[in-house]
Structures are given as structure tokens and as C-alpha cells.
Amino acid sequence: MFRQVNRLFAQTCIVRGILQHSRNEFCSTALVQLRSKKLLKVSGADASDFLQGLITNDMGHFNDGAKCMYAMFLNNKGRVLYDSLIYKWDENSFLLECQRSVFDSLLRHLSLYKLKRNILFDDASAGYDVWTLISTVNTPLPEITFDPKSHINLFADPRLKELGCRLITINSLDAATLTELFGKNVILKDEDVYRYARYKLGVGEGPDELPPGACFPLEVNCDYLHGVSFHKGCYVGQELTARIHHTGVVRKRLMPLRFIEQIGVLENIDKEEAIVPARNSKGKIGVLRGFVQDFGIGLLRIKDAIEAGTVKMSNYTAEVIKPSWWPVEAPKEKINVT
């Protein structure tokens, strides 16, 4: 117990030192408890090889020093089932962060492929909480890492610097303790602040925004978010993903939408609301996946959306935004897979 207190005290000093050194970067920074997330622990001598055969990314990155990795689990038709942040926890164990609503489904999916491998599955949410430390103005935070065995484990988000950092803490470390630790530079916010920041960037998460079995990983920007390896060996759904990358071009992608009229708290738009150009009759060019206040995210035909500039859904009008973090050499919009 004495050693645990000492480690926590040391971390407190480190964090305070970082905040004092990087005061400008931490202005307008939100601390959000992600109650919608759960953690699934995959451990055992075969854990790394097991996950390697199921995810879009390469577990070899952990051998090269990575602490956190973005990846997706696909079905045998190459469509997205679940998205996840995967954390290196200790030598033979990993934590899979997923949406609370799909935790049981993900566990069943993994269990189908377990066979006689030396692997254990545990609900790590019984002992740990997930938080995000994110800039509310979409500016990068300093990259910081902590000892995975400590009380506060902090990982830079592997997708975009603008998405800040993830914190995994023991359950007994509550919001009051954390906010006191970070001081006045960090403000405790609810989960809508995190969703708003993601929508401004055009980043989707979870089954509401990435409906299971409904889209390909490249359509939801998994490749742009460093979540796909095109150099690793086979995994479930790999053949079609590789074919789209090497011989096809992606016609649709998730894109941010800025509403011209802010949507009221009591108003609602269906998640699958059709999106059409505001000024011509091309018909449906996409579907809405989610919104918070004046920002949303939609799966759109890129060429048509950019040409339209402004789109309509229900009684609302929105401006289509091409994310600044998309690579300049983004492929032309066409796909040869149905």
C-alpha cells in the first residue's frame, strides 16, 4: 500500500510538472469520463497472435514500442463489426476498449476464434474506468505516457493528436480526485463534449456511427486514422480490405457536417436521415450518423458532397467539411465492391 501511495504521489508531481510546463496547450482542455465505454482484457501467452489474426492493424507495433493502437474487427465479408482502441497492458495482456453496448457481442466474436489457445477474457471495467483528456478547440495536446502498471495510465490517442489522450484509472480514483490533480487548466465535462470534438474532426465510434456489418473500414476512415496495416499477414476480412486498397478507390467516407441552424435540445433527427444536396435534385448522397448541437457526422459520397457544398436533411441545412487531416493524395471517389 505504501508503494502504491508513493507511485501515485510521483505521478501527481509528474502530471503537475507537465501542466505547468505546457500551460498554453492545456487551456480549454476537457476531462471526460467515457461511461459509454468498457474494457475487455485479453491475456495469455497466445493473446498477441490471437488478436493479430482478427484485427485490421498489426500487433507488431507493440513490439516496436507502441502503447496504444487503433483497429477494427471485421466480418468475413470485410465489413466493420467493432472498432477498438487496444492498449498494451503488460507482457502478455491487452485491454480492448469498446462501446458498452457491444461488449457482449465482441466477447462472443472473440470466443468463436479462441479454440484451444492459451487465452483468457476478463471484464476489466470491474476495476478500471476510461477517461479522455481532450482539447475543446481541436489543438494537439502534449504526448505523455505512464507506466501501465500504475494507478493512472495515460495514452496518446493513436488516431489524431487533436483527439488528445486516454486515461485508464482504477475505479476508486474519482472525478474530484482527477480534477484536483490537474487543477484549473482542465475542466470536467460530460460525454457530449467528446462527441462534439469528434464530429468536428469527422471521426466515428461505436455501433451508432459505425453500424455493424454496414460499411467497409476504409469508408469510415480507418486507413486515414492509422487503423489498418496493409503489410501484415492474413486476418478476418483482410482479402476484401486489401483489394479495395490496392485495386479500388473509395467512393464514400465519413465526413463532418456543420449545421447552419443549431439543433435544439428537444429536437431530433433520425440517425439514418437521408442527406441530399441543398441546391439540386441529385437525390440521396449519404446518411446521417450522429449530431451534437451544430455539428454532425455523415457517411457521404465524397465527390457529390464536395460539389454540393451545402446539404439538407429533415428541415435542416448543413455545410459539408473536408477534414484537414485527410491526406492530400486521397484517392478519387469510386469503388468496385458492392
Explained architecture:
With 338 residues, the chain is of the alpha+beta class. The chain has two domains: 199 residues, Gyrase A, domain 2, CATH 3.30.1360; 115 residues, Elongation Factor Tu (Ef-tu), domain 3 (Beta Barrel). 25% of the residues lie in helices and 29% in strands. A hairpin with a 5-residue loop joins β3 and β4. The N terminus and C terminus are likely disordered.
| Count of helical regions | 10
Low-confidence stretches: 1-27, 142-147, 331-338
Report the major sheet. Answer: 6 strands, antiparallel, barrel
User: What's the CATH topology label of the largest domain?
Assistant: Gyrase A, domain 2
Strand content: 25-35%
Radius of gyration from CA coordinates: 20 Å
Overall domain count: 2
CATH superfamily of the largest domain: Probable tRNA modification gtpase trme, domain 1
pLDDT averaged residue by residue: 84
- What is the succession of H and E elements? HHEEHHEEEHEEEEHEHHHEEEEHEE
Could you outline the blueprint of secondary structure elements for this entry?
Blueprint: H1 2-21, H2 23-26, E1 29-33, E2 37-43, H3 47-52, H4 60-63, E3 68-74, E4 80-90, E5 93-99, H5 103-112, E6 120-123, E7 128-135, E8 152-156, E9 165-170, H6 175-182, E10 186-189, H7 191-201, H8 206-209, H9 238-247, E11 252-259, E12 274-277, E13 286-292, E14 295-301, H10 302-308, E15 310-313, E16 316-320
Parallel strand pairs: 1-10
Antiparallel strand pairs: 1-7, 2-5, 2-6, 3-4, 4-5, 7-9, 8-9, 11-14, 11-16, 12-13, 12-15, 13-14, 15-16
